[in-house]
UniProtKB/TrEMBL annotation:
<protein>
    <recommendedName>
        <fullName>Cysteine proteinase inhibitor</fullName>
    </recommendedName>
</protein>
<dbReference type="InterPro" id="IPR000010">
    <property type="entry name" value="Cystatin_dom"/>
</dbReference>
<dbReference type="InterPro" id="IPR027214">
    <property type="entry name" value="Cystatin"/>
</dbReference>
<dbReference type="GO" id="GO:0004869">
    <property type="term" value="F:cysteine-type endopeptidase inhibitor activity"/>
</dbReference>
<dbReference type="Pfam" id="PF16845">
    <property type="entry name" value="SQAPI"/>
</dbReference>
<feature type="domain" description="Cystatin">
    <location>
        <begin position="35"/>
        <end position="125"/>
    </location>
</feature>
<dbReference type="InterPro" id="IPR018073">
    <property type="entry name" value="Prot_inh_cystat_CS"/>
</dbReference>
<comment type="similarity">
    <text>Belongs to the cystatin family. Phytocystatin subfamily.</text>
</comment>
<keyword id="KW-0646">Protease inhibitor</keyword>
<dbReference type="InterPro" id="IPR046350">
    <property type="entry name" value="Cystatin_sf"/>
</dbReference>
<keyword id="KW-0789">Thiol protease inhibitor</keyword>
């Protein structure tokens, strides 16, 4: 009787170890697929994304309204996203101020289920000078 209990206890122990291992593997795969919650991750294929293009235009338009500015949107140069209460998009935007192309960093907070979109930050990238050639798309990529 004593050995039967030991065998049953050992069997339960082995099943628990296996279950914990399986749960650990599946949760780590899910976390890797999602990215770190709250961490920044690159927006895939942002150059061909209408949503990213619209967010870039929105950021420039909102900046112009808030600052009585007159910069002209050209394109999104880089895009990252961060999961918050919604999504915070971190964009690097090429725009023209008069005839001078410049780069700007913008943060746009989006909560689609509330039809909410707000410009959180917009500032020029600190660079001594930027020419059109510096902002051009590289050939052969």
């Amino acid at each position: 009787m004593q050995s039967r209990r030991q065998i049953d206890s050992f069997g339960v122990f082995v099943l628990c170890v296996i279950a914990i291992g399986v749960l650990g593997i599946s949760s780590s795969r899910g976390a890797a697929a999602m990215g770190t919650l709250g961490g920044l991750r690159d927006v895939k294929d942002f150059q061909n994304s209408i949503e990213t293009l619209d967010l870039g235009r929105f950021a420039v338009d909102e900046h112009n309204k808030q600052q009585n500015g007159d910069i002209t949107f050209r394109r999104v140069v880089a895009a990252q996203e961060q999961v918050v209460a919604g999504t915070m998009y971190h964009l690097t935007i090429e725009a023209e101020d008069g005839d001078h192309p410049k780069l700007y960093k913008a943060k746009v907070w989006v909560k689609p289920w509330e039809n909410f979109k707000r410009l959180e930050d917009f500032k020029p990238v600190e660079q001594p000078s930027v020419s059109r050639a510096d902002l051009g798309v590289k050939q052969g990529s």
